[in-house]
Structures are given as structure tokens and as C-alpha cells.
Amino acid sequence: MSNHDKIRQLIEMRAQARLGGGEKRLDAQHQKGKLSARERIELLLDDNSFEEYDMFVTHRTTAFGLDKQLYLGDGVVTGHGTIDGRLVYVFAQDFTVLGGSLSETYAQKICKIMDQAMLVGAPVIGLNDSGGARIQEGVRSLAGYADIFQRNIMASGVIPQLSAILGPCAGGAVYSPALTDFILMADKQSYMFVTGPKVARTVTGENISEEDLGGARIHASKSGVTHFVTENEEEAMQVLRKLLSYLPQNNMEEPPLVANTDPIDRADDALNHIIPENPNQPYDMLDVIHKLVDGDEFLEVQRYYARNMITGFARFNGMSVGIVANQPNYLAGVLDIDASRKAARFVRFCDAFNIPIVTLVDVPGFLPGSGQEYGGIILHGAKLLYAYGEATVPKVTIILRKAYGGAYDVMSSKHLRGDLNYAWPMAEIAVMGPKGAIEVLYNKELAAAANPAERNAILATKEKQYRDELLNPYEAAKYGYIDDIIEPRNSRFRIIRALQTLANKKLSNPPKKHGNIPL
Predict the structure, then answer these.
(1) CATH number for 73
(2) Which domain holds residue 463?
(3) Catalytic residue among 352, 406, 436, 449, which?
(4) What is the H or E stretch that residue 161 is in?
(5) Options 407, 427, 437, 498, the catalytic residue
(6) Is 86 helix (H, G, I), strand (E, B) or coil?
(7) Is the predicted pLDDT of residue 480 greater than 90, yes or no?
(8) Catalytic: 389?
(9) What is the DSSP string of 473-492?
(10) Do 456 and 382 share a domain, yes or no?
(11) Greatest mean pLDDT range, 8-12, 130-134, 146-150
(12) Which of 21, 131, 132, 171 is catalytic?
């Protein structure tokens, strides 16, 4: 064979590899409204930046007639490229090749790019669309999954790991995405579950659809497994690109700093009036966030899960920041199991990747009741406490209104190494709200009241005294637990000044293998 023929052979084999499972299966993928693996990579990465690895890899199995089903690339496209000029590694599972099922060689391809990503300190993005383990390969396929899991674990907290679920993801396949930092699911096109509807029907008798068992909306609102839900794949790629814009390449770098045209001293008079006069009346914390951050831009994480807690990314004077905030508009912003878990994991992610944390507090306490106690609110609430106390990144906290009881401690208080803790003048910082406090403190006096009118009069008098003496931010400021009481309209400037001041903060935890967080 001449050199010319060899070059022509290479070109032909490349063309064959790019067809995956062939034109017919590509057409079937498109008819389902799904993109191919390579189309997804093209959408995700900067134009002409993708460098593919292992295009000519094939599986090595002869059992069950697999030796007659050889496809170049073996069902996964791997390589690296750039997003906004920054290096990323990516793998895209190809459903057109044997249903995207994972083989030994397929897993080795993924492991190779994960190893390289760790060597150079760059994020890994997985685009998942797979029927699961390749049954014909038996334990070798299972071993391939475990090899990937081990790398997910080693990479955790070292490089950002993002997972997009763009088709089926079942059985052992769900655990690699679960080990990554963020999961995104395409609505009505993807699902995740450990055991599917057929197994559920056989074992438990439950009759349920794939969508209701593990669809995007279910995992976004009920389980909290997924962090983002998108309408389609194009939006999914945009969200992945946007998310990466807030993150550093690895844990040894600072988050990217972008040019900012929003004045740092922009004051917003609306903030002075956003807290209702009635302390029991809700307001939308998202309105506060949008008024504070650069350019009104906020990328909310887990928007549909534990809506009493808000988490997400924004910028202050171009600096990337993680925001954690109670949401008085939902369950009064109370802390419960789901809200604690949601915020704790987000805080730990920010801390791992050097992203400062801004905490906006309006919390009436922990949700009472047997449901929460039996569900382990003690342990789950302690996760958030642990996460804040462990975090060494800059921590700036503003108490807007309520900060009652243990929930005051948990929400990035000065006592958990909060760096700068501010309060608005309408803040209420105390062990409990006025009614509960008076009923405890003056139980005998209230019980001895001659009639309901006298009891209400005692309550009103004592509540006013309690509010005047204890339910204000000046009591905490007197002890230095609040660094300053600030006018709400100036909050943006004070946050930015605090973050600038803390830019060179150095804090380390005691030497240890790792702590024992209350899982």
C-alpha cells in the first residue's frame, strides 16, 4: 500500500468513526429529538477547538456475537477543547453504538481523559446518554464503571466535574454523575434511577413510568439529585458554559475575574423598603440578590429543590462568588433537612474551589415536628454547621431580618469563623421570636391571668419589652458578633469592600486525613 493509499485509508476510517453506529442509527437519534455525541461536543466547545483521543479504539469481546459488531471509538467520544478559551476535557457517550453501553475499553477511554485532566488541572465534563453496562462483557464492564468512580473520587475537590444527562442513565451508571459536582438533566429526554420501573414493578408491585420514577423534574424537585433542568440540549450546553465561567480550572487557582461595568457604589433605595413592617410577612429574597449583584446576573443552583434555601453563583465587581440565602417567600425561609443538605454541599464546593461565600440571612429557625426529627434533622442541620465552620474561603454575612436560635449560629455566624458579619437595622437576632420567648419567660404570669384580655395585655407589654431590649442587631453588635449595622441601600458596596479586603485571606484547618462530617 502506497503512502497515498495509507493517507486515504486514514481519512476513510476517520469518516467511519465520525458516523458512530451509522447513518440509520444517527437518524433514529435525531428522530427522538436528540443530538449525536459529536454534535453535542460541537455545541459545548469553542469552534474548532476539539481534539479527539482514541478514535480508533474498539472493544475486545467475542462472546454473544460481539466480534461482528465492531465500531470505531466503541461508543464514547473523548478528548479536550476549550470553553471561552479555557481548557476542558470532555467525554460524550454515543447512544448510536450498542445503545451507548459501557465496555472495558469504553471505560478506559474515559479514564484516560480524567487522568490527563488531573495532570494538567482542568475541568471534566461528561455528556451521558447510555443504556448502562454492556451485558455481554460481564464483570469487565462493572470493573470499568468502578475505575471511573475511583477517578471521580480522587478528582473531587481538585478539578470541577460536571455531568449532563441527555438520555437514559440507569443502574451503576448513575453513580459517576452522583460523584461529580453538578448534574444537569434535559427535560422529558433524560432519566436517572438505580433500578428501573420494570424491576420496581416486579419487586414492590409499584407501577410507575420512567419519567415519574427518575425524570428531570422529579430529580430537580423531589430528590435534589440534579442541579439544573433545561428545556433542550442547546440550553444544556449554554448552562454548562455559563457555570464554568464562575469556576476556577482547579483547586490551586482563583476563580476567573471578569471586567465589570456595574458601579461598585451603586446604591439601591428599594432595599431600604424591601423588608415588610410586619415581621411575619414574606418577601422574595431573589429580589434582594438581583439588586446586589453585578448586572442583575445570578445563576441559581437547585432552583426547584428545597426552595426555602437559595444557592447560586454571581459576581461582585467581577469577582465570582457563591451566594447562600434563606428564602422567606417559601416556608418562611425555615431550615429543614433538604435546605440544610442543599446549602451544605454548595458551601463545601465553594470552599474546595476558592470561591468566596456571601450569606444572606432571614431564618426563623429549624422546622419542628416528628417528620424532621425522624428524618435526622439533627445530623442534616449539623452538615451545614460543619460546612460553614470548615470553610476557609472569605465569608461575608448579612442578617436582613430574622436570625433565631441555632439557625443564627448555623448561617455563617461570626462564631463559625465568619470574616465580616453585617446586619440591617431591622434585624432580629435572638434565641427565639417574641411570642415564644414571652410564653417561656412569663409562663406563670400568663397562666394566672384572670381572663383572655388580661393575658393578651401581658403578652403585648412583655413582647414590646422583649423587642426593645433583645430583638435588635445592637445587642449582638455590642459583643462584636456583628461587625457593623449597615443601611440596606449600601449593601452592595459593603459586600464588595469586604471581598476586596479579604482577597488575600490565609486560613488553614488543623492537619488531618479528613474530618468526619455527620453524613
Answers:
(1) 3.90.226.10
(2) 434-470
(3) 406
(4) strand 161-165
(5) 407
(6) strand
(7) yes
(8) no
(9) HHHHHHTTSSSEE--GGGHH
(10) no
(11) 146-150
(12) 171
